[in-house]
């Protein structure tokens, strides 16, 4: 499997490349955002390790432009480790987030976890009531209204729709949407659900995303 490392510190980039190659991966490196974006879009990679603080183009901008063209899994690497920093990175389309400094063993475990994610189902369109989710084009509509979602909002909606009628706990959502175990006292899921609900429910009479007090969230048509 091929991995792209976009990291502006040469020693770190070399260290990561050597470690991944010893783990039987093929690895390429880019030392700035511009070069990294070019490689990410012009080559086929199974995973991208992306530093946030980069010259030429910062990591979040690189991530945004990658997501406009491809859905390659992206693991963000950064010294910024607040919950808000994680939220911004994940909302921008990252699949996972690792704070510097980190142990190489943890990085390798996260890389393997991302690469183990199952291939997409042959089903390309999901529906709940009047809401249609196109998994290929990553488009969402309710009736004739197009709904614009961020990458993480789309991932959250996809999970809820695939398990419509099931009550999903916050821990289940974080492990499946972000593949990160957040502390139980953080409200990242509540914030994400609130933003999603504002887009898919607030403008419409029939509400689909419901809170089950003390348990979690469920997507279903209760009309």
Automatic annotation (TrEMBL):
InterPro entries: CheY-like_superfamily (IPR011006), CusR-like (IPR006291), OmpR/PhoB-type_DNA-bd (IPR001867), Sig_transdc_resp-reg_receiver (IPR001789), WalR-like (IPR039420), WH-like_DNA-bd_sf (IPR036388). It comes from Paraburkholderia fynbosensis. The gene is czcR_3. Residues 123-221 bind DNA. The modification 4-aspartylphosphate is found at residue 51. One of its GO terms (molecular function) is transcription cis-regulatory region binding. GO terms for biological process: regulation of DNA-templated transcription. This is Transcriptional activator protein CzcR. Keywords: Cadmium, DNA-binding, Phosphoprotein, Transcription, Transcription regulation, Two-component regulatory system, Zinc.
């Amino acid at each position: 499997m091929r991995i792209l490392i976009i990291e502006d510190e040469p020693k770190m980039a070399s260290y990561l490349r050597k470690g991944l190659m010893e783990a039987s991966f093929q690895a390429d490196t880019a030392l700035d955002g511009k070069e990294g974006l070019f490689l990410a879009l012009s080559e086929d990679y199974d995973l991208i390790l992306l530093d946030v603080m980069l010259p030429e183009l910062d990591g979040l901008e690189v991530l945004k432009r990658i997501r406009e063209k491809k859905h390659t899994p992206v693991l963000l690497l950064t010294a910024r480790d607040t919950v808000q920093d994680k939220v911004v990175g994940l909302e921008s389309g990252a699949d996972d987030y690792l704070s510097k400094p980190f142990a190489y063993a943890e990085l390798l475990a996260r890389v393997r976890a991302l690469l183990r994610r199952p291939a997409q189902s042959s089903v390309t369109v999901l529906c709940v009531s009047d809401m249609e989710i196109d998994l290929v084009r990553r488009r969402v509509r309710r009736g004739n209204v197009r709904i614009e979602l961020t990458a993480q909002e789309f991932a959250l909606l996809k999970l809820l729709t695939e398990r419509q009628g099931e009550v999903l706990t916050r821990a289940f959502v974080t492990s499946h949407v972000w593949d990160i175990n957040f502390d139980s006292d953080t409200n990242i899921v509540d914030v994400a659900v609130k933003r999603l609900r504002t887009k898919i429910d607030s403008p419409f009479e029939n509400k689909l995303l419901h809170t089950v007090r003390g348990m979690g969230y469920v997507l279903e048509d209760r009309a």
